[in-house]
Amino acid sequence: MPFFWFSRISSGLLPVIFLMLAAFPLCSQPPTQASIYGPVKKQDYLLGKFQPTQHPAFVKLSPLGIPVRGEQMLRREAADALRRMYQDLHREHPKVEFWVQSSSRNWFDQKAIWESKWNGTTLVEGKALNKSIPDPLSRARKILEFSSMPGTSRHHWGTDLDINILTNVYYQSGNGAVLYQWLQKNAANYGYCQVYTAGRKKGYLEERWHWSYLPVSKILLKDWKEEFGRNTASLKGFEGFQASGSLAPVYVESINPNCQ
Ligand SMILES: [Zn+2]
User: How far does the centroid of ligand 1 lie from the alpha carbon of residue 172, in Å?
Assistant: First the structure.
């Protein structure tokens, strides 16, 4: 009898069922523009002009049991997938070391990195580039071998992270090789993709340590191209922009085709 059935359930299980119904749509719905950008203006989000610590979609990684260096944050969806990936890696290879070295960096962090190389405060390959490469376009290309210009790094999206060690050679032997081979085989099952692979003709050099959570970053990449792909003027706001701003779309768009 329905009434009897309902009253039996309501005695104990009903709160649990309500909780499941409330939680299920959050887990199952694909991200939308509204859920991605939240309170931040779309253009500002796409360039990283906001504080991840104050955005409701961002969570800290260490409380989820993900090994980190320093404090690291990602979007909730990316963090949950990363936790599952790390747990499965750890189950299969308990002795392999894995940690998140770097995750969310906003426009202002990236501007500081870029400008210190641009004006020679930070040396690149032992040289102050403002003196060794006076030509602005050549100087920008040199910095772009190692660092991205503000607004183009993907690190501000909350979907991208750097693991362990930031050199390709680390992933050729020992701990790094086991880790990298496991990720190449399995990361896609969790939505993760290596953005800067070897063999591309343009863009940033190979980075075996940089991984991106595609279910969200695909949407952000598409929106970035629409907003700035043909209108680089609105990327302004850092030293060297006049010379290098037009390079931005090439570097953002020239990624592993499997990550697009
Ligand atoms: Zn990176």
Answer: 18
Write out pLDDT tens, residues 168-187.
Answer: 999 999 999 999 999 999 99
Distance 194 CA to ligand 1 centre (A): 10
Distance from residue 162's CA to the centre of ligand 1 (Å): 5
Model pLDDT, residue 220: 96
Query: Structural domain boundaries of the chain?
Result: 41-259
Inter-residue contact 235 to 47 (CB < 8 Å): yes
pLDDT tier at 211, thresholds 50, 70, 90:
very high
> What is the structure's pLDDT at 11?
52
CATH of domain 41-259: 3.30.1380.10
Distances from the Cα of 12 to the Cα of 2, 8, 18, 49, angstroms: 16, 8, 11, 48
Half-sphere exposure for 122 (CA within 13 Å, toward CB)? 12
The token pair at 193 is 């993709």
**Does residue 89 carry a pLDDT above 70?**
yes
DSSP structural state of residue 100: E
Ligand 1 center–CA 148 separation, angstroms: 9
d(CA 161, ligand 1 centre) in Å:
6
Please give the Cα distance from 8 to 239 (Å, whole number): 69
Question: Do residues 43 and 227 lie in contact, with contact meaning Cβ atoms separated by under 8 Å?
Answer: yes
Quick one: 125 exposed, middle or buried, by C-beta within 10 A (0-12, 13-18, 19+)? exposed
